[in-house]
Predict the 3D structure of the following.
Amino acid sequence: MNKIALIIGGSRGIGRSIALRLAQAKFNIWLTYKSNHEAAKKVKSEIESLGTACDLIPFDVSDFKETETALSPRLEDTAPDVLVYNSGITRDNLMVWMTKEEWDSVLSTNLDGFYNVTRTVLFSMLRAKRGRIIIISSASGQIGQAGQVNYSASKAGLIGAARALAREVGRKNILVNVVAPGFIETEMTEKFPKKDILPLIPFNRLGSPDDVASVVSFLCTEEHMYIHGQVIGVNGGLVM
């Protein structure tokens, strides 16, 4: 029987690559997304072409009740073997001009969403006495980024939450780790000026979603695993 990977925010970019990589590793995928039905259906088709199952679960992670309603019925008898929290948005602005909506929307999706999802899923993993939780943070959460005080705060918050959670659940055979991508070529970064960014990266290229997915796959599939409570950078040397 295939294991189950719950991918939060799996319809595009990094989430899509993670979902496909885990499908190749013979995980059945529970793929969540907010509203882009067309993109989600395309990923579902790609996953099923690899010979594994994919269930699409649309909901807004920033809404606790909506999250609980979408996930709880599935968790009554089944615990996902893997939870990947990849949901995230940006609303960039300098702090002096940042609106309350720009602050709240980023924190509610990126950080509150992590609570909403993990709080809902965790009981099933504790009951099963197994699980792996991988949280997608960012280099911005490690070193900060001008114009991204809201985003950096949310991604730094994920790192702190993951380290605390790792101390809580490690004894129950649940591994918790963070993957922190740098500049990855996705829709989120397509407007960034590459000529200004590349000099900051010792490896001299932007990363690809597959670069991130390969690390997540390792954390999900490696049998002999003793990595717990760690932040793994996937950034070409941007953060050392």
User: Anything to note?
Assistant: Residues 203 and 236 are 5 Å apart (CA to CA).
